[in-house]
Specification:
Blueprint lengths: L2 H6 L9 H14 L4 H30 L16 H21 L3 E2 L2 H9 L7 E3 L5 E19 L8 E18 L2 H12 L3 H12 L12 E9 L11 E3 L2 H28 L3 H40 E4 H29 L2 E2 L3 H16 L7 H11 L2 E3 L4 E4 L2 H13 L4 H8 L5
Antiparallel strand pairs: 1-3, 2-6, 3-4, 4-5, 5-7, 8-10, 9-10
């Protein structure tokens, strides 16, 4: 399923703030005779309980990411051999992916990525990127939309505007780790049949434009907003810019014609020159023509670079450590919204586990009617958390019921009281069972 098709069918992501959703839910519950104060307290306690769990999750993930962070200003006192480094890297990436899924991000499929990379940007940018340069590459998005953009058409003498629809990613997460130079050179040698020294030279040439300090030992994390899907290449550090066919034609015509005219005129002046000053003036004029045409090439490329820099500047949300924090906050926000929805609906209408699909449909209608947006509500995910926390109960027959809001507040208060008990800390510190 393409990203556009998936957007049309709704996503797990709930594009409403928790505060707006909470107000709509309390309005519905008040219509049923519920106490606004009791529900406000219950929702406050639920949000606080989720926050502490995500705070711990984030701290654990930051600890795992520390050896691979390019921004760390503290010494890493834990030394790992090659096998330990590879294991730690795999566990870190696995933890990041789990967090992205909880934040309702969707992994960009390989088919969608290949399709996007061959599409041409409506801005006229022609960008190319070699994915072979990366050991690890993850792209996750959340939310898609279509923007209508207008551009002046050269085929209409720039007097009229063309309107085009540009699919965008509302949020886009990028994780990448560069291959070690030697590994990249080995792949180039094997693919092109080159000797190792020549392949190493090519690999170094491909990396020479990267800033100082960029290392293949680090994992780079970035979060962007409102990125046009066809401009995905601009997010990679090894992007190469090339000219559009129209720009190539324009430059060939102007540069070739201008230079040819300059050469012809200069040749005529040289043949007619009778003194050294006239000859020098003719040569200077020819040099100026050639310089102007060459600068035309560079100015066109600089225009592309400026467009690239502006897009990255205004679309970047967070990097590395900050990206982890942003994703954790998003995951917490999504869980709180899902839990509030399911808890409130089960409090109104106790249901059976086999009827969960009907409850999901009712929640989706509520969000569509009162919030004006279509979603694909993840009922099973929310139910698992609410059952684990004791806010929803399931009997032997599969009947589901939510505890009352006042009881929920008192229950969560007891959970908080036991949070730092020795037994609780021992359980949280125990290694997970494989």
């Amino acid at each position: 399923m393409s990203t556009t098709e998936r957007a049309g069918r709704g996503e797990h992501f709930i594009p409403v703030s928790r505060y707006g959703l909470r107000a709509k839910l309390i309005g519905m519950l008040k219509e049923d005779g519920g106490s606004e104060r009791a529900w406000n307290r219950a929702f406050d306690c639920l949000a606080a309980w989720r926050h502490q769990s995500y705070r711990k999750l984030l701290l654990d993930l930051i600890e795992d990411y520390l050896p691979f962070s390019p921004d760390s200003d503290t010494a890493n006192l834990i030394e790992l051999d090659a096998a330990g480094q590879a294991k730690a890297r795999a566990e870190t990436i696995q933890g990041i992916e789990k967090l992205l899924v909880q934040a309702n991000y969707v992994r960009l499929s390989e088919a969608d990525l290949k399709r996007i990379l061959i599409e041409r940007s409506p801005h006229g940018l022609s960008l190319k990127v070699d994915l072979i340069d990366y050991d690890d590459l993850l792209l996750y998005y959340r939310g898609t939309a279509v923007e209508v953009q207008e551009t002046r058409s050269p085929w209409r003498l720039y007097l009229a505007r063309d309107r085009c629809e540009v699919p965008i990613f509302q949020r886009l997460f990028l994780l990448l780790k560069l291959k070690p130079l030697e590994a990249l050179a080995a792949e180039i040698a094997a693919a092109k049949g080159l000797d190792p020294s020549k392949a190493l030279e090519i690999a170094r040439k491909r990396r020479r434009h990267l800033p100082a300090g960029v290392s293949s030992d680090k994992i780079y994390l970035k979060v962007f907003k409102r990125i046009p899907q066809v401009d995905l290449e601009m997010l990679f550090p090894n992007t190469r810019i090339s000219f559009r066919p129209f720009d190539k034609l324009k430059l060939c015509v102007t540069a070739g014609g201008g230079t040819a005219a300059g050469v012809a005129g200069t040749a005529t002046k040289i043949l007619a020159a009778t003194n050294p000053l006239a000859l020098a003036a003719a040569l200077a004029g020819l040099s100026a023509v050639i310089f102007r045409q060459v600068m035309g090439f560079f100015n066109t490329r600089n225009r592309y670079m400026m467009m690239l820099a502006q897009n990255l500047y205004f679309c970047s949300l967070a990097n590395n450590h900050g990206a982890l924090t942003l994703i954790a906050d998003s995951a917490e926000e999504e869980d709180v919204k899902e839990d509030m929805l399911l808890y409130a609906f089960l409090a109104r209408l106790p249901s059976h586990h086999d009827a969960l699909a009907d409850l999901k449909a009712a929640i989706q209608r509520f969000v569509a009617d009162r919030c004006g947006t279509a979603i694909d509500f993840d009922a099973n995910d929310a139910l698992g958390r609410l059952l684990a926390d004791g806010l929803v109960r399931k009997d032997a027959s599969g009947n589901l019921s939510a505890i009352a809001p006042d009881e929920a507040r008192a229950h969560l208060d007891r959970l908080w009281d036991g949070l730092l008990d020795v037994d609780t800390l021992d359980r949280s510190a125990a290694p997970a069972t494989p």
